[in-house]
Amino acid sequence: MSQPSATQRNGEQASDKNAMRPFQVNIREAELTELRGRINATKWPERETVADASQGVQLVTIQALARYWGTEYDWRKCEAKLNALPQFITEIDGLDIHFIHVRSKDENALPLIVTHGWPGSVVEQLKIIDPLTNPTAHGGSASDAFDVVIPSMPGYGYSGKPAMTGWGPDRIARAWVTLMKRLGYTKFVAQGGDWGAIIVDLMGVQAPPELLGIHTNMPGIFPAEIDQAAFSGAPAPLGLSPDEQVAYERLQFVYQKGIAYGFQMGLRPQTLYGIADSPVGLAAYLLDHDARSYALISRVFAGESEGLTRDDILDNITITWLTNTALSAARLYWEYWGKGYFNAKGVSIPVAVSVFPDELYPAPRSWTQTAYPKLIYYNKLNKGGHFAAWEQPEIFAEELRAGFRPLRK
Asked: What pTM was estimated for this model as a whole?
């Protein structure tokens, strides 16, 4: 039998790297038993010395979370939801990328790649899959159908953990184009919030010919001088409109009071060994994203039911724990430190923007139009926060239908 030539072997290796390998989540019961044991053995500090959340995640909230997590929460339900969807892993630029890929039954469906953020995973987008791929079952039109691709960012969830520096959002943006082309899509759109918003902005800056447009629910719209003034703590510049004044004040609050985790992860991510070792430490850290999101999350552990559920929140935290990605996820902040999360970046392609009232800041139309010269859609909603796809999936899905409608043939 003749041996394959070097050319053949190299071709096979390249083909293998490009392969879409089916993936299923299968956590050993021993890992879940160990997790519950760690939760129930938590060493607790005293409660905070204030009556609000100004010192961080409150003891009553995290203890309620831990009681439910350590005794009643069932990870297998989340595992079953994930495994009911087509999941794959493919190697891009030397790193394994995990993604969900659900095709619509409509042959004219618009391909869409959706990116999560921190502290996140693909769990954030599970509820929007059916409304987007099967719109007629959710009050929409068949002409608004999408094929949906939801990847795990490098270092998050079931994607590979970068072993060297360089995997910042600009590289992720390029990898997503590679992924969509590898799936056979010659034209597609992209959506993102949180880190996903930065990634789609950078996709819009890179402007590959295959990318028709982007949708963002955390638009990078602040002029450089406004962003710098808010970061410095300076009073609002003179001459701002009422909408711009509100956005400035909210951004300033985020910088001064809201992103302590961003500074820690941006400067010293490797020091966070505690959240890799303690599940309750991890949970508290991930809950403390921003004041408005914390209010939306903490209320469900006080017995309220609007938006997210206890299982929603713990599914996301548990994926991070079981994949041991707390630190690999944190390094994304280090990769991008000092480059600007909320500033205008020079996006040159069509953009749709949805403004949710409990986002970090409400983007004014004036700055949005300047940041995105090809703005094709802008809408202010009356409900929803930073994790809008997770919390208000039906509203979010309708925003994507409306926002991308101008780009359909």
From this structure: 0.94
